[in-house]
Amino acid sequence: MSTKSAMKNTEERNHHKQRLTPNGTLFEFLASPDETGSEICLIRGTIPPAVAVPLHSHSDVELFYVLEGSLEAFQFGNGNHGWVSFGPGDVVSIPGNTKHALRNTSPLPATAIVVTTSKLYSFFQEVSKPVDGDRAAARPTPEEIQKLVATAAKYGYWMGSPEENAAIGLTL
C-alpha cells in the first residue's frame, strides 16, 4: 500500500457519507477494513442528547476515545457492573462478549472515535442509512426496529429485552 493511498484528506473523508442508526447515532466511517488492510476499522460516532444505545453484547471488542461531550457506559462482566461517565480524552474499552450500553444524558452531543472489528463495521453498515440533510432524525419505525433485531440475530449479537434495559435505567 502506498503512502498516498493510506492517507485521507478532508475532501476524501467527506466522500464517506454520514450514516444514521435507528436510535439517532450519527456515524462517519473514517477507515474501512478494506482501507486498513486488516480486520479493524475507524468510525466517528456522535450520540445526540437524551439518546441511548440499548443493552447488548457481541464478540467484537470496541474502543471509544471521547472527543467531545459526556458519554456514560454501562458494562456487566469482567469485574465491571454499572454506569461510568467519560469525557473528552477518556477511553472506554468494551471487551468482547460483555453486556454493555451507552447513553448521553448531557444537553450536548457526545462524539467519540471508535476502533472495532470488520464484523461490527458490516453490521453498522447494514443497520444504518445515509443521512438525509433535508429531514430531521425521527424516532425509529417499528420496521426499523425489526430490521435492527433481525440483523443483530444474523450476526449472532445479543440484544437486551425492554425489561433488562429498564433494570439498568434505560427506557426503550
Main attributes?
6 helices, seven-stranded antiparallel sheet, Jelly Rolls, 37% strand, 172 residues, disordered N terminus, alpha+beta, five-stranded antiparallel sheet
Largest sheet: 7 strands, antiparallel
- Structure class: alpha+beta
Poorly predicted runs of 5 or more residues: 1-6
Q: Under the CATH scheme, which architecture would be assigned?
A: Sandwich
What CATH calls the topology is Jelly Rolls
The CATH top-level class label = Mainly Beta
Query: Termini separation (Å)?
Result: 45 Å
CATH superfamily: Jelly Rolls
Helicity, as a percent range: 25-40%
What does this structure look like?
The protein has helices at residues 3-6, 10-15, 33-36, 118-127, 142-155, 162-167; strands spanning 19-20, 26-31, 40-47, 52-57, 62-68, 71-77, 80-86, 91-94, 99-103, 110-117, 129-130, 158-159. Helix 4 (118-127) packs antiparallel against helix 5. The protein has six helices and twelve strands. It has 172 residues and is of the alpha+beta class. The N and C termini lie far apart (45 Å). It has one domain: Jelly Rolls (Sandwich). A seven-stranded antiparallel β-sheet has the order 8-5-10-3-2-1-11. Strands 7-6-9-4-12 form a five-stranded antiparallel β-sheet, covered by helices on one side.
